[in-house]
Amino acid sequence: MEDFKWLENAMTSNTTPIPYIVETSGQYDSSYAGWKAFNGTNISSSDCWSSNENNGWISFYIGDKYKIGGIAITSRVSEVTGAPKDFKVYCSNDNVNWVEVLYKTNEISWSSSEKRIYYFDKIINGKFIKLDVISNNGRVRLDVGQINIYCTPLKKRMVLQNDNSYYSLSENTLIHLPDNSHKNMILHGIEQSKEIQLDVPFTKHNYLNDTPVDGASGKVFTHDIGKINALGIREIKENKSFEPIFTWYETKMTSNNAPSPLVASASSENLPRLAWKAFQTYVTSTTIDDCWLTNSGETLGWIQLDFGTVKTISQLKMMGRNSSTGDKPMEFTVSGSNDGTNFTELQRFKQTIDWASNTERLFILNKSHSFRYYRINILNNNGHSVSGIARIQFGYKREVK
Question: What are the structural domains, with CATH classification, of the chain?
Fold first, then answer.
């Protein structure tokens, strides 16, 4: 999973330090210039960007292309009615063509120097980010105390050619790439999960695995020198097979908001069977109360976990409540969100029957997803007047040899 971080801002003018650049639709005067929204501080009422109108935009050039996943906006000290109310966020690679990544309305009731975090529904690549405020909370001028960007640099890779040799420039390191001679094909094989296009002339294949195949195990590719562009493939059998590796997020919750930054919530709770109990240490439940349960008479409901940051999942496992089978989910959806309000349905599971007490069930999604919030919405249970789940754990899968 990629290492997203909040970009540390320390602007001292609209163009320093290099390569950052701040542009705005306008400013009240030079004491409230746009760069102050990216200077890393928000200590007084003058430490902000203030527009000359009650709306406007401010953009930030990051420099190199980044993967951008969210934005944080902090209100001005004291003047909270100048904070954004309705606004959009855009990203761009050229400062001309912009893509909308976020639209928020009715962001009201700001407190002094309050930071609000907004994660995008999907990650986007870009060099520029723009906050376009349509209206504020009533003041004559628009005020923004601080803006932070949630992002990670795109990894760079460059291939250089010198005569018939190829080199890869990655992380400031020059690496020699073997050519596609029959000798190198035999020595090196091809990297797992990669492929060779058989309909492309063999002399055009230049990206081969540069790690020798020890003892010629696995799949070995050989080139028949006697025929032009003829590729012979020889497979050597071995006993090893691809095994799935499951990685699970350990939540170990002790209340609905501990440990930080985790937050568990549900459509309803049946005391003492609270939402967090489904996300505590993943062990077999011991009593009928060691679980999450909907309120009396509420057959259906949802339970969700806020990780506090974006997490990638491709699977989840659930354990049935230590009780009769009727309260366990039969049909449910898994949804994801980055703002806790707008959810995207990721997959629907049906006919999950034949539960038993403390039985674990593994559910594999069709593909990986990256969100901050994940919600399980029970659409139908196995016949009880309430629904419950003893344990829930999210994770992802990869295959190794």
Answer: 5-153 (2.60.120.260), 158-235 (no CATH), 247-400 (2.60.120.260)
